[in-house]
Design brief:
Shape of chain B: elongated
Distance between the termini of chain B: 40 Å
Shape of chain A: globular
Number of helices of chain B: 16
Oligomer: heterodimer
Distance between the termini of chain A: 37 Å
Helix content of chain A: 25-40%
Number of domains of chain B: 3
Low-confidence stretches of chain A: 1-14
CATH architecture of the largest domain in chain B: Orthogonal Bundle
Largest interface: A-B, 29 and 20 residues
Bound molecules: adenosine-5'-triphosphate, magnesium ion
CATH topology of the largest domain in chain B: MetI-like fold
CATH superfamily of the largest domain in chain B: MetI-like
Radius of gyration of chain B: 29 Å
Amino acid sequence: MKLNGDLIMDEQKEQNNIRNKKSLIECRGVDVFYGDKQALFGINLDIGEKEVTSLIGPSGCGKSTFLRCINRMNDVIEICKVEGNIKIDNEDIYHPDVDVVELRSRIGMVFQKPNPFPKSVYDNVAYGPKLHGRILHKDDLDAKVEKSLERAGLWSEVKDRLGEPGTSLSGGQQQRLCIARAIAIDPSIILMDEPCSALDPIATAKIEELIDELKDNFTITIVTHSMQQAARVSQRTAFFHLGKLIEVGDTEKIFRSPDHEQTEAYVTGRYG
Amino acid sequence: MSKNLSIRHRAEKRFIAYGFISLILAATMLATIIGSMIYRSIPAYTNYSIDLEINMTEISAEDEFEDINFRGIIRSSLFSFFPEVESRSDKRKLFKLISSSASYTLRDFIIENPSYINKKFYFNVLFTDDSDLFYKGYVDTSLSESERRLDNQEVAWLNELKNTGRVKNKISKNLFLNGDSREPEVAGFWGATIGSLITISVTLLLSFPVGVLTAIYLENFAVKNRITDFIEVNINNLAAVPSIIFGLLGLAVFINFFGMPRSIPLVGGLVLSLMTLPTIIIATRSSLQSVPPSIREAALAMGASEMQVVFQHLLPSALPGIFTGTIIGLARAFGESAPLLLIGMVAFIVDIPATFTDPATALPVQIYIWADSPERAFVAKTSAATLILIGLLILINLAAVLLRKRYEVKW
Ligand SMILES: Nc1ncnc2c1ncn2[C@@H]1O[C@H](COP(=O)(O)OP(=O)(O)OP(=O)(O)O)[C@@H](O)[C@H]1O
Ligand SMILES: [Mg+2]
């Protein structure tokens, strides 16, 4: 197993040779099964610290599944089984000693459909810090909520309606609220699964802008169906196809001169 | 195209008309039932009584209450209206026109107000149910004597009494404040109402927490395997089991096996809990299921534990549904009589219960007992008690609506 892992590692290094950043998440030979059906096949992928990595690929190729491996949200699905090795900061996150709750408190996640809690805007953002008992004073909590909303570019829009239910905001505002909620727990990693698919171009632009700002402090992995979005926001891009990682590299390279024909076909829109 | 459209419009209009007709039909039937109940219950709310002149001048304050012949005092006061009545049998018949409760009410009054000893005063005593119904016009004097409850002699006496101007028709306090009695003019539904409320509290206190916790466990924590599947099927089954079966179970388990006393609200509440539990479990599970999974995912991804997800997110969102289910279950239990009959809550109980171990009966059982009684006056009482039961059920359901509004979650 060890030997096998090393082999894969070497192969991966070759593929990653143009990388200049330190990698925070290292995945080796990740297989995922839903019952008998295999959804991911031997994924080897490194995700660099404090940069944006986008995952692209046709529908059903396993992008979401892969994303959910990183914060172990697949554990929640009973029939889902994850094999292989995923390290965050050199710590094996599937090791039996790992506390999933603690792991998830270090990783923020933003979903495809905005899903604020049916609580006030304030409580939505304050939920994480309170949950992990990190902030005990009301004043500190207020400051945290303000700062998180500020970073999510939502503060000016909601500062007068913090008591209103989060679900009463517009779709784009709700999504930014979800981002504020995710960053309020000071995660080192933010996972986003098609965060803009339910939004109009203006709201999308706002969120893209936000992602660009956030990358200085957070490691961001984003699943997207929009090639333009991937090109705009990410430094690295990984192309998945039928459960396999076909190619990963600098975004510029993936879009200009990908090594694989399939990748080229997909990014130029000639796919299927 | 336009032809097709007009056909569709007509179909829609027809459908709306059918719906409206059904609504009218249902409303009419409901109104008929309630209306006839109200009509039939009218004689129950008042009771004819007479102010008798009570002479206590021959009694001194030193006498023990036990020694005072209250019955005799009332008898002589009544007989003073009819000096011509002399034979013992006639006197007995005359005395039977007023309620046998009269001497007890006088005694209770004197015990509370001893200052009336030595005095002459007027005291209001009830007529019996038959005299009362006569005054209310429910005795058809054109029938032959053998076909009615009062013979010509009694009718004459009652008419004569009425002519004295001492006969009054007053609101029947007994109906609202008393427990059961063999005498219709004394019987009331307060004892049964309190019995019902105590029983239903026991049911609520037991079945709500147990039901909700069971549902949460089954829904969010239990491993899905054959055993939990089996339990699930059984719970759904139990919800459809006839209520009398729960009565049999309660009799066998709580009374025969555990040796609990009969006729007490505690056992009644336990039995009704068994009956209500499946309803609460099913309602709770379905309202937990109806919370969007995205909320659960969001909370889990924030690092909430399974328990925190349940108590901070699922439960608050599911509360309106849980309350509705619980109250529907409780309302059903509140109107239930069959299982209570089996555990002895059908006993004849005069005292108003105060704790959940005092012998008691329940409103639906009281209705059953009265409906089953031969005295005509109980017909009106049955209707009155039914109206109270319906009224309480409306209150319970109103509470459900209010709770649902209060805890409603807007997505
Ligand atoms: N909960 C599940 N149970 C069973 N199979 C699943 C489940 N979730 C995903 N799959 C399967 O796994 C495969 C990968 O799904 P995944 O959701 O990761 O795709 P995706 O790349 O995110 O697609 P999309 O772009 O449409 O979101 C699909 O074939 C899907 O049918
Ligand atoms: Mg997906």
